[in-house]
């Protein structure tokens, strides 16, 4: 299994899906992962509400969202921080405390009185027999964990190192609240450093998808590993590595341009048109964009016959709804936008239909 995952590090760097499409799929995947991480902790925000909340933040002026959405937005900001910092910055106490600050700041129910600071009091883990270390010992335990994370190991052992670090972090439970969310972000950061995920190419593994596949099993495995016995730690590592292997198999499908176009984008456009989200003509425009990746007004002469002003008006309406976006290098070229907009929920339904949506998100579709 480790050998298969090691091969995947190279395979995931390749694919036929156009970069502009894959980047958007990854951005959507990261949003879904943020929703998933929050739902593991009990957040019940629907995907539709989360997408609407993210869309508000992209618009002009001030916005107001409920705390469930704000929690997801915080995780999104922390993921962005990891993507920007993890490739070059060492994973340090400062790095981890910044993850915590970004994750809990501004929250009430799921926040922490001291964002970005290790706890000064005792904590209990809900429904767990494990008692985390005394507050006075937290810094020493975290220093040892940081040293372990930074220790050079052979490539085939990096994922074992990552699995052990995830459990050890939660065993320490260094913060008053938000430990689960930060643990998953830390694990993602380690995978970025190891080349299993990248903001620039087809590597997009995020361990939260593994944990979200079966929330109860995730907690059971963590609880079992808290004994720190060799067998329990091996069981935990096997659980995580098997989950990652399954996730890699799914992710390779997103690197296949034909699969993305024929099984995801075009059916999602059709679903949106059937639900009344776009007109027949608008659906044809979006379908053309899905097939060609980028389009110009001239590509729509058969879809929108008549004078060029009609095509310009149709494009403008889709631009205003953020369903199309101008190409940064050429303002007369446009591409389909996946998220956050009215198209997103239809694309998520397609991800579910083809088996790419983790279990924990299925009831979030309603």
Descriptive account of the structure:
There is one protein chain. This protein has 366 residues and is mainly α. 60% of the residues lie in helices and 4% in strands. A 3-stranded antiparallel β-sheet has the order 1-3-2, with helices on one face. The model has no long low-confidence stretch (mean pLDDT 90).
Computed CA radius of gyration, to the nearest angstrom: 22 Å
Shape: elongated
Q: H/E order of the elements?
A: HHHHHHHHHHHHHEHEEHH
Q: What value does the average pLDDT take?
A: 90
Number of strands: 3
- Supply the helix-strand structural class: mainly alpha
**How many angstroms separate the termini?**
36 Å
Uncertain stretches: none
Secondary structure tally, helices: 16
Strand content: under 5%
Question: Could you give a short description of this structure?
Answer:
The protein is mainly alpha-helical and 366 residues long. Helices cover 60% and strands 4% of the residues. The radius of gyration is 22 Å and the shape is elongated.
């Amino acid at each position: 299994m480790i050998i298969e995952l090691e091969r995947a590090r190279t395979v995931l760097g390749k694919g036929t899906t156009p970069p502009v499409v894959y980047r958007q799929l990854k951005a959507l995947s990261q949003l879904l992962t943020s929703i998933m991480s929050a739902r593991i902790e009990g957040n019940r925000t629907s995907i539709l509400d989360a997408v609407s909340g993210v869309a508000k933040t992209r618009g002009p002026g001030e916005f107001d969202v409920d705390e469930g959405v704000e929690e997801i937005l915080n995780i999104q900001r922390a993921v962005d921080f990891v993507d920007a910092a993890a490739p070059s910055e060492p994973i340090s106490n400062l790095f981890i405390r910044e993850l915590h600050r970004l994750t809990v700041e501004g929250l009430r129910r799921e926040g922490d009185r001291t964002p970005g600071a290790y706890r000064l009091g005792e904590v209990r883990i809900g429904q767990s027999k494990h008692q985390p270390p005394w507050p006075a010992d937290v810094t020493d335990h975290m220093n040892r964990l940081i040293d372990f994370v930074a220790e050079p190991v052979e490539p085939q052992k990096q994922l074992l190192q990552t699995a052990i670090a995830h459990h050890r972090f939660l065993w320490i439970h260094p913060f008053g609240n938000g430990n689960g969310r930060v643990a998953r972000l830390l694990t993602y950061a380690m995978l970025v450093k190891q080349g299993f995920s990248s903001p620039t190419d087809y590597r997009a593994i995020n361990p939260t998808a593994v944990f979200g596949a079966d929330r109860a099993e995730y907690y059971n495995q963590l609880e079992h590993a808290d004994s720190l016995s060799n067998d329990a730690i091996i069981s935990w590592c096997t659980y995580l590595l098997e989950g990652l292997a399954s996730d890699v198999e799914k992710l390779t499908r997103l690197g296949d341009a034909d699969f993305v176009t024929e099984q995801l984008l075009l059916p999602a456009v059709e679903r949106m048109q059937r639900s009344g989200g776009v007109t027949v003509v608008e659906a044809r425009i979006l379908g053309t964009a899905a097939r060609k990746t980028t389009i110009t007004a001239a590509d729509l002469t058969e879809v929108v016959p008549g004078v060029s002003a009609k095509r310009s008006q149709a494009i403008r309406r889709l631009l205003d709804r953020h369903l199309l976006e101008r190409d940064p290098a050429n303002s007369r070229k446009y591409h389909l936008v996946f998220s956050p907009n009215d198209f997103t929920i239809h694309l998520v339904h397609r991800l579910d239909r083809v088996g790419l949506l983790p279990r924990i998100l299925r009831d979030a579709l309603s």
